[in-house]
What does this fold into?
Amino acid sequence: MTRSLFARAHSAIERTFPEQRLFLRSDTETRFIRLSPVTQFVGVTGSAMLLGWTIVSSAILLMHSLGAGDLREQALREQAIYEARLNELASERDARATEAAAAQERFAVALAEVSAMQSRLLESEDRRKELETGIDVIAGTLRDAMKERDMARDEAETLLAELAETTAEQPDVTRLEDLEATLGFMTAALGNLAETRDEMSAFVDEAEQHLDRVALEEKLEGQRNERIFTQIEDAVTTSLKPIDDMFSQVGLPTDSILEQVRRSYSGRGGPLTPIVFSTSGDAEPDPLTTRANDVLSQLDRLNLYRIAAEKLPFGFPVRGSYRSTSGFGPRWGRMHEGHDWAGPTGTPIHATADGVVSFAGRQGGYGNLIKIKHDFGYETRYAHLSRFRVKVGDRVSRGDRIGDMGNTGRSTGTHLHYEIRRGGSAINPMKYIKAARDVF
It folds into this structure.
């Protein structure tokens, strides 16, 4: 059976490719090469396979080139979109920083207004007390003068009666002269008392008019204070909300953190003390004092937020030209525990929060690495640096330059690998950066 198939195949090849002879002629002789049907079949088949392989390979290479071009163009478009978004975020961050600075200035002006308002209210209260005391003294003096006047009148009437009796009895001349002198003295005293009464009455009228002016001034001052308080309360509410949202977005226990800041604070610009508008010793504060203390409480909370934000890694580590290359999460089968930004060698790297440098040296795949310890159990890491600008033990503030971008350690190009850790566990840095973009 096999031989029969082979024979039929051989016959088909012989019919298709009959035996050929290839003559090679020279000057002296002629030779030929005999091409059998099998040789021709093998040559034609091999040539066809080679041609087919060449066509298929060319098609594969062409398709791969086209696909790579599309992927490259897509990657470039995505990179351009991402860089545009980063530039937009940077612009928004700068705008928010400007707004925050303006808010701080408004708070400073507001505090100055509150202080001036307190001084004016205390002066107004002192003037009112002085006027009330003066009026009481004047009223007492007037009452005493009226009593003396009444007594003088009674005595004058008595003397007049005695004078009449004496005249009827024909007394001696000396007694009559004494009575006349006493009557003249009493008449003069009554005139003086009447003049004093008129002066006191005029002073009382003037004092009442002054009290009316003071009452009007207090009313106008109250209306002005109402406008000031309303503006301050609106400004505090507007400034406090984005900071409160920033802490909430990263899941921080704000009350606990603010309490820690309050207990540990020892610097300038710390917790504010309540304002006291009255020294009268009243047990219950007046509504103005209560309202002012409420505003100061909110300002105190805002100030504590500011201090806490300086101690937490809400800042951005890279300044200058950069692009994001790799985010937080699984990458190539391993967990990427930070975020990467690429840029030119020497790009400035800055601390993202206040803290103390705990490590500055070379460490395995990190290459040149800086570690900074922060309050509340946080640590930030800055890897693959080309240069250190701090040393172990240095205390740094948010925004201080700590190193330069490089390509040390296990790195495929110049970039910064940035990590945030809390209690030793890695956290997505972009969560904090995005939360702070509306504040800083």
